[in-house]
Design a protein that fits this description.
This protein has 109 residues and is an alpha/beta fold. Helix content is 30%, strand content 18%. The protein has one domain: Vaccinia Virus protein VP39 (Rossmann fold, 3-Layer(aba) Sandwich).
C-alpha cells in the first residue's frame, strides 16, 4: 500500500463532523493546512468556503493533493520546521485528531 493510500484510509477514522461543527464560518477565510498530506482535509475546507494553503514535505502526497485540482487551494512543498514566508497572518486551530466524542456526546481533546 502506498503512503498516499494509507493517508486516504486514515481520513475516515477522524471525527471531522464534530470538528467542523465547532468551528466558526470558514467562508472567505484563508486556512493554512500544515502537513496537508493528500489534501482530503483541504477539500473539506474548500467545500466550506475557505481558501487553503496546504504545506507538506512529501512529494508523493503533494502530487496526490494537487491532482484534486481544488479551485481554491494550493499545495506547497516545505519542511514544517522551517516554514517559508507564506504571506498570511494566521490564527490556528489544532484539528488533527483533537475532537473525539465522549459517551455523553461531549468532546474532549
Amino acid at each position: 500500500m502506498s503512503l498516499a493510500s494509507e493517508y486516504k484510509q486514515q481520513f475516515g477514522w477522524r471525527y471531522w463532523p464534530t470538528i467542523f461543527d465547532a468551528l466558526p464560518s470558514l467562508q472567505g477565510q484563508t486556512i493554512l493546512d500544515l502537513g496537508c498530506g493528500v489534501g482530503e482535509l483541504a477539500a473539506e475546507l474548500v467545500a466550506c468556503g475557505a481558501r487553503v494553503i496546504g504545506v507538506d514535505m512529501n512529494e508523493e502526497l503533494l502530487r496526490e493533493a494537487r491532482s484534486r485540482q481544488l479551485s481554491n487551494a494550493e499545495f506547497r512543498a516545505a519542511d514544517l520546521r522551517r516554514l517559508p514566508e507564506l504571506g498570511i497572518a494566521a490564527a490556528a486551530y489544532a484539528m488533527y485528531g483533537t475532537a473525539r466524542p465522549r459517551a455523553d456526546g461531549a468532546t474532549f481533546g
